[in-house]
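Example with several molecule types.
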Amino acid sequence: MTEPEESPQDTEEALNSLLESEADNDQVDQFLDELSASDAARAVSRLDWEAQERLLTRLSPSQAAHLVVELCEVQAAGLLDGLDPSAAAEILHELPGDERVDLLSELPESSAETILEEMSPEDAELSRRLGAYDSDSAGGLMIAELVTYPAGATVGDVVKDLRRQATVYRDYQVQYLYIVDDQSRLVGVLPLRRLLQAEDDTQVDEAMIPDPLTVLDQDTLEELIDFFDRHHFLAVPVVDADGRLVGVVHNEAVNEAEHDRSDDDYRKASGLVREELRSMPLLLRSRRRLSWLSVNIVLNIVAASVIAAYQETLAEAIALAVFLPVISDMSGCSGNQAVAVSMRELSLGLVRTNEKRYVFIKEASVGVINGIMLGAMVAGAAYLWKGNPYLGAVVGLALAINTIIAVIVGGIVPLVLKHWGKDPALAAGPILTTVTDICGFFLVFALASGVLDRL
Amino acid sequence: MTEPEESPQDTEEALNSLLESEADNDQVDQFLDELSASDAARAVSRLDWEAQERLLTRLSPSQAAHLVVELCEVQAAGLLDGLDPSAAAEILHELPGDERVDLLSELPESSAETILEEMSPEDAELSRRLGAYDSDSAGGLMIAELVTYPAGATVGDVVKDLRRQATVYRDYQVQYLYIVDDQSRLVGVLPLRRLLQAEDDTQVDEAMIPDPLTVLDQDTLEELIDFFDRHHFLAVPVVDADGRLVGVVHNEAVNEAEHDRSDDDYRKASGLVREELRSMPLLLRSRRRLSWLSVNIVLNIVAASVIAAYQETLAEAIALAVFLPVISDMSGCSGNQAVAVSMRELSLGLVRTNEKRYVFIKEASVGVINGIMLGAMVAGAAYLWKGNPYLGAVVGLALAINTIIAVIVGGIVPLVLKHWGKDPALAAGPILTTVTDICGFFLVFALASGVLDRL
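Resulting structure tokens for the full complex:
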């Protein structure tokens, strides 16, 4: 499996010089073909924005489509957005229906509309219909390319037709055939295996699995995850409200959507509101990061105003200033662990948004133990430094109590946010650190006030 | 798809009272059967540890196995560990080979060994053989249950055999047949679709796809991701160094492993060294969280010692103390965004561990813009509060410079850690915040020293 690795710089330079040279488009295409998907994506992303667009326009639509599917959606959409709408429409025409819709949904609405107008009426109609589904619903995750047969056909007819259409169906990865009545309503599913095992003159009605399980086109990702949890199927047919077969959702598409969502959680918890790749233009990247940072700095300054309010206390016991960032940071760490456990249990379905009492009890007990341990450590450090047991007691007790607060807040905030329909990955961190900073600073000064003459 | 939801408390109580009552085991089993996988997992995880074990021993091995696969691995392994080894072996016997190995690998080594000794020699041998593979290698991700035929057979023979063995193969989800020579070496792959389209007297050698692409049992997850990136296959056969067919890796298993890894990244970045569920015993949970927190608090105290060193400067300009936690926290936030982008680009293959210069340039430019913006905000806040332009200039400039340092360090540290074979998800955060705290505190005091009489 291992192949000799070219250094990425070499790949980038080779691609750049190919583009600048008079090399014909076939040569460019062949060069890209020889790279793995990730090498091609990396090489292309290292080109500057205009060179990337020039590259796309030099390839034929089908070659360009081949490249586009290998890029991340966010990058591919950015590139299409920069192209002439009719060129973008031609490239999209080459993609399967579901991928086309995914890319269109990443584009600004006005660009998507302009490109749709350049498409053939059929492509545009299908794209609009699929695009109307929420991207994380069964309709948004399904593929619309199916092989269907009428209920009256015989096994022999079907086998003959499959042989005849071999080339048409080659790209379909057919594993199941779908049997429909004259209203396009699904009446059965016929796995290829069963077809093989049946005699030629059997009617498909008899060989098929009748009344198969289906999902509704409006079903959510959670419902699909639950479905594939209960049933170890590779795929499930999707019907609309009238029972008409509209597509098939593969377990793999559901897994991928779940995967994307947890990738998203990590990204958002780190403060990236929208996806960022380093190949994007500088100002866009900077803006995407700042949107979250500027909310955060305001919250930070609000929390810091607690210190400002106690400035006189601080002046009398300047040693406290050393421990304020430690308490702020450690409470944040402890609380974020609880956030991560809640996010994970929410996504596994092990905790529900209304179970705040359960989370409270579970977190409070961890908080007591870890609060005592961390408090003792910071108290010990303070005592070793200044030889003052009162200083140790103040900062140790403040951290201990604040750890308990932090894990409880951290555990519960994701449940509350999710209950309100807000995105816990994005907001839980800032809310947590603001609350724990305010409480932590306040605790230090409140405890210090009582023994100020001994600090 | 939506079914009436019982509140989780009800489910838990119903299960508890079933267990305490004299209900026979079938009733317990039927109760669990009616729940979805996640409902069952949640209800079981709410029982206390001993009740969970009692539940497992009351079910037949195959019923228990059915429940075990629905739980998270970490929870299932914990339960098996508490059971009598022979009971655990009986339950494991009911699981497919790959799931059995996954669970054994989650157990402490000594428990796994005791359970292996209770297994049948064949089960134990297969488990040891599969267990020897790294869990993220092709050998660790493959399934060993395959349908193979000798190269000499005809399509008619194969179809007849498939019909005869229908019940045996029912659980195999057969889509491809594997054609081997007399040394068990793989010579071809025969998709069911091709079998259907071939005439009965054709030899499988002619119908099959000869010399199919394969992966080696030692190939890594990265190599498999790259393989399925290049080739849109549902599965790929796995061979050992001698070319013998040993299993099949499904694209789905690779996706799931990739998914688990990114779930892991989020968890680790939040400071959970090992997976935690709230159903685990309190002390275990507390210990798992503390292992990371106690390293972190030491690093925090080291960073805070910079403040201690400048205590006298601080006493002369106490207002600086208000901004120290702001600068510490905001630099951490900016740096963590860069960490998340690097982690994502590493996992997408868009950046390699040796491309520090590329990341440096890309991050430094974002850092300059965002540093100026954030510095201006904190400078403005300081000026508004105290009306002192020098205070504003000191804290604003410190945050601006430290933001640039933070994004560069945050962007590069994951590359360096990965290059050294360390886990970036776990270590990048603590390293980043320690470096940025030290630099940030130092910058504040160094800049302040120059204008101390004006603060």
